Amino acid sequence: MKKLMICLAAALLCACAPREKVVEPNGKKEYFANVDIAIDENDPYVYAGTVDYIFAGKVTKVKSNHIKMTSKQSDYYSYYEIQVIENIKGSLVEQIEAKKLGGFDDNGTEMLIESDYRKDTEMPVEGKTYMFMAYAQKDGTLTLSEFLDDRPYDENLKKEYEEYVENEVPSDRERYNSVYEAEKTLLKIGHTLSEADNPEPTEPERQSADLNAEELEETEWCACREELIPSEVLAVIKEDHPECDLSKWQMMIHFFDDEKSTGMLQMRYDIGEIATDRTIVCSIENNRIRNIFYANMSGEANEEELKEKVRNFENSTVQEEYELGEGDKFLEETVQYSYRYDTGKLIYTYNLFFEEPGGVINNSIGSEYIIE
Q1: Cα(first)–Cα(last) distance of the chain, in Å?
Q2: Measured between alpha carbons, how far is 325 from 276 in angstroms, rounded to an integer?
Q3: How far apart are CA 170 and CA 92, in angstroms?
Q4: C or N: which end of the chain has fewer Cβ atoms within 10 Å?
Q5: Quick check: 110 and 120 in contact, CB under 8 A?
Q6: pTM to 2 decimals?
Q7: Bridge partners (DSSP) listed for residue 267
Q8: Distances from the Cα of 253 to the Cαs of 238, 266, 281, 297, in angstroms?
Q9: Which residues contact 198 (CB under 8 A, 6 or more apart)?
């Protein structure tokens, strides 16, 4: 068995066109090479962060699946034409070509790769639909990943890969753009929303209260934990809105004075990375919660559809860069996705923060877009 070292970012093939020979399978399988790759091939979150593209695709043609056991790694690849059905990570055009390590020998035996920890299961079959992962090579071609790259498609598997991407482990490998990269829409600096697209928020429902807030400690935004919220407050919220499951919410406690006597307890319902305007705000005055404000506690949203819209938006757009002036110091840039239950609008917001000469913090540079 051959031992192959796989460089994730390298273009392993010659510039010449592949031999277009298709071999009929004989039903037998054999593992012809043991591969070493630079990542943990059993961790799908690491894999998702390493590859450039993850997509659902249908194999429309096996261009060549005949491989030869020579000294050239370029002889170990099969070539496919694939119809991209849905992009999960990255943005590819509808019709692409890609290569995959492995294939069939002269007799039709399926020749697969393995590592010390994982085995490939099969080569892609013409007419079938899979979840694919792929690297862009330096020459712009696409190479399917060594493992987890051609699992038969279904909706549950798609959701699995979406979760991998949502929680991927970032990789610092060198990146290239594929020749099959879809053209992206430029998000212009200074683009803002009209009042019609983003009207003033609706007035929240106000509930008077007189509840103890002396034990509260300031927090950043974090997952809502009932032990951080006074039991009296929890009891009122559960009485007013018994359907409200705060375990799915975020919270923050902020005081306006050093004595921690005045401030607010904020709770917000989020859909993954999408912040919403479904909120509960408790105003604190003299260590007492005097009012509880409920905003947009009713109304439905297709949460999976909203998450998919965000993924598609990320894959099909690129933010225009702002050129800092002489002496300006970059501080940070932020991107927020938000959903308004009161208008049904999904909104992208970009902000750039930098320090001007003299120490003034400028936060006026940004973009806003409605995500359709």
Answers
A1: 52
A2: 35
A3: 20
A4: C
A5: no
A6: 0.67
A7: 251, 280
A8: 19, 6, 10, 20
A9: 340, 343, 345, 347, 368
